[in-house]
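Researcher: Going back to the complex we discussed earlier. I've cleaned up the inputs and rechecked each line, so this should be the final set. Can you rerun the prediction on the complete assembly and write out the structure?
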Amino acid sequence: MKLLSLFLKVIAGVTFTSQLAAFQALPQQQESFELAPGYGKLAYPLPAKGSYQLPPLGKALDGKILDEQGNSGTLYDIFAGKYVLLSFIYSNCSDINGCPLASNVSYKLKSAMQKDSLLADNLRLVSLSFDPDRDKPEVMRLYGENFKYAGNKGEWKFLTTDSMQQLSPILQAYNQDIQREKSVNGDQSENISHILRVFLIDPDYNIRNIYSVGFLHADLVKNDVKTLLLNSIPGTTKIVNQSNVVSLLTRPGDNKEGYDTLNYTTHSNALTEREGKGKPADLLSIARNPPLGLPALPAQLLAGLSAEKIALGRKLFFDRRLSLNDTFSCAMCHVPEQGFTSNEVSMAVGIEGRSVRRNSPTIFNVAYATRLFHDGREYSLEQQAWGPLLAKNEMGNPSIGYVIEKINNIDGYRELFEQAFNGKGVNMMTVGEAIASYQRTLISADSNFDRWFYAKQQNALSISAQDGFALFTGKAKCATCHTVGNDVALFTDNKMHNTGIGYNNSMGIKPDKERVVLAPGVFIEVDREIIDAVGAKSPADLGLYEITENPHDRWKYKTPTLRNISLTAPYMHNGSIGSLKEVVDFYNKGGIHNEVLDPLIQPLNLTDKEVKNLVEFLQSLTGSNVDTLVADAFSAPVGDLTHSDPNWANSGGFSNED
Amino acid sequence: MNTKIIKRFKPAVVIALTAITMLGGINQAQADETCQSPYMAKITGQEDFVYVWTLGVEGMGDGQDKLVTVDTNPKSSQYGKVINTLSVGGRNEAHHSGFTDDRKFLWAGGLDTNKIFVFDVHTDPAKPTLSNVITDFVSASGGVVGPHTTYALPGRMMITGLSNNKDHGGRTALVEYSNEGKHIVTHWMPTDEKLGGADKAGKFADGYNYDVRVLPRRNLMLTSSFTGWSNYMMDFGKMLNDKEAMKRFGNTVVAWNLHTKKPMKVLDVPGAPLEIRCAWKSENNWCVTTTALTSKIWLIYEDDKGEWQSKAVADIGDPSKIPLPVDISIASDDSGLWVNTFMDGKTRYFDMSDPFNPKQTYEKVIGKQVNMASSSWDGTRVYYTSSLLANWDKKGSDDEQYLKAFSWNGDKLVENFSIDFYKAKLGRAHQMRFGAYSLYNKFSKLESIDDSSKQIAQLTGELVN
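Model: Rerun complete. Updated structure for the full complex:
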């Protein structure tokens, strides 16, 4: 309310004449009462965050200032560590499209910070007076009081200088020509003529943008700050017209592409070189700045994230000691270079080789999943983490307490938990939260599709992939479940559907012979009875029904995201389909008929060319930062048993002499 | 030391040969003992024991892996009986084992948990004890998973890995340990990215590993290639249905410089070459392996230019039925080769007198499934066990688990005794290694002292009380 009254007061005393010359390039200023765009809704769509660059425009120079308490300091002290939006104002300013506009935009940004912790953590608002004679520190403090109703979160500094002499070099450095207006009788007026310039300065004191009346807008500033944050993450810089997204690290080190043919040659990577390709990434920033095409994470999730928790979660994720027999970490099934899933097996294999009845889902973008596991039986990553830890056929730990006790007895963990969780040690909550924290940072988008669709880069997507997208949202109806929004796309509705794959399994519908590859390009047809002689009976799997016992939920499984889909073969909840083309063929035929088949699944009558284009579109969904995330994972230590770890055989108890 | 032992056993050879001649002139001499490292002492007479590295089965007996000692001396009152079991904790995917060059210790690896159990077999050969457990094989080796063959080199053990701790796939290494149980060095298998100076002779350099054997006279070490943890631990039927998994088998044999331990050449041997056996005779510069999936015998031989080459020389059974050749055993005079095929439970004898044209001359069904074959030095006794891998063994009533002992007279196998490992609540019988009192200048405390051993000992003046 106070702000409103301030504006009313300001508006009541407006004088416009002196600024007109400065605004001549902007037609609306000819009309004195027309408000600057910054007061209203932005008239054009914001460019996608990270889809453009803000190259440094020059150095933001230092200078001596006084803060609200009258303490002397420097601008660089104020600028340190954050992005800064610097406005030059004076408290008596009555030009509504001048200082009040700058303060109004700052006020909006401060308000936004109350919900946007990323903004609050990274942007500092600074208002510096160019009227040191009148704007003493106390005046600036009172001026600032008017804006405190924006909320407590975030910083907004109200500064002045000791004298005009101290101010002059600053004004010069920031190219702020001012002159005291004269009143009609020739006396100096309180009003100061100036051109509105608001500066966005990065933590390295580079000016990254300068806003004038015509385009100073809170949304734009916010967008610019987030773009700069995104671009500051190594490996995630988005450059307009950058060549297509191609992942170099995300493929199995033991690549079997083309194994079906006699021409196959190996292209195997050395495990020893894998470590050398490791490079830690700023995962926290990635979580705070989702790449182009993905929404911001909910504020309450971001608020819980910290670099310490993420680092601890990553350590746990790669620690094979977290299983009963020290052989299994999360990463053994969610292999970083295999799309954080496993390209090498259709269904996972747990400790002692126990069969897991479903395909390992990718961890990429799991932060956005509202339900977890293929049957959707969990709702948060914190809870979900305990599922595999305790499953007899996954990591096989016998109890929660066992896991906690074991972690406590492995060198170093206790301290890391206490550091990450404010003194709290290893417990069920902190283990879940740490692992969840790491997983939440594995966010990947800014694909060729995103650049084409959201950043409007015409060349980012091939014509055939564009046709594929038209099919995706049109004739093929994929987007009904794999949703695409106007601003962002998760490519999943987070719901459960029955495609018939599960039905087929339950009914034991299999061919009499299985085509088995024995060596590159060498196949034989093996009788089903031979396979059955050496195979355990398939476990039952009824999907969502197992959670609800609702017969309508038989064979329903969660819609997976399609982001990075070309990295996460094989497909479907049981990994039964090896290639994207076969997946499209499957849906083209209308899935597998059963009494509770999802009515959305119907024959599509796609032509071969349409199938090809659809596949090409799906292949365009690889995020630009996947290699950053994989390289980060490569840099994580893999936890394996050492002589100092808890294990009966480490304590010399192996002698059988009683 | 080896020289000393060989000298000591010369009389045994004489006696054994005399006995063989008396029995009707058996000229084959295929033997598990010939599968041992050439650096190691050998039992040329009667083995007193067979140590069976046995996989625990959940819900059966104590459910854990164990070293089972069976008395195999026909003169013993305990002949054909289990005389000792030593449980080691956990189901580790017990698989292969090998003695140190002094034959005092038996190193037995767990393909799943990566533990290596070191048994003292010399203090009391009838009752091995656990002397050491290497628990940090993975971390010490830099990420190698699945310690498989433990093969004696002088003063150290060469251990083949099958997998790794990054993706549980087949890329892996050879790892050297000192006899004292300390990690010395890890030699990663050549991959396309890092061939390590090797010549990729064909299309494949997969980085996989399985078995290791040496031919010291040619300064050659050979390794073969199987598959990674995800596959060897997976349910066999599930894997056959898994098209991606089936692409993850080794297709290579690597020829190494034994002295420098540097890979020289990566040879294409498609279809998962497993066991390697090298010829003994000085004129036979070849080794042999069999491919599990493509069911062939492959010869790795030195050509007239001194180059090592690979060649498929015979089919094993009907490859279209995937008989799955598993263990092999070569004759000490290189004249024959036992080849077991898991799926049909058969043991097959191949005449290797022309190694480029092996011919199958005999076969017998040993059980509903068969894996390992071990025969005595003189070739007259052959032992078989049943288990391949815990999750690859057949299911239901086909899952027979046994140790069976046979006599071989050159024409046929005659069963001497059989132990049902399930009935005895022991588990899955895997690899066999022989033990003998005579190796350690010891004699049985039981009533049955092997007269011939005693005679040998008297001859050599080394009888101890």
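Model: Worth noting: Residues 1-32, 235-242 of chain A have pLDDT under 50 and may be disordered.
Researcher: Good, that matches what I expected from the previous run.
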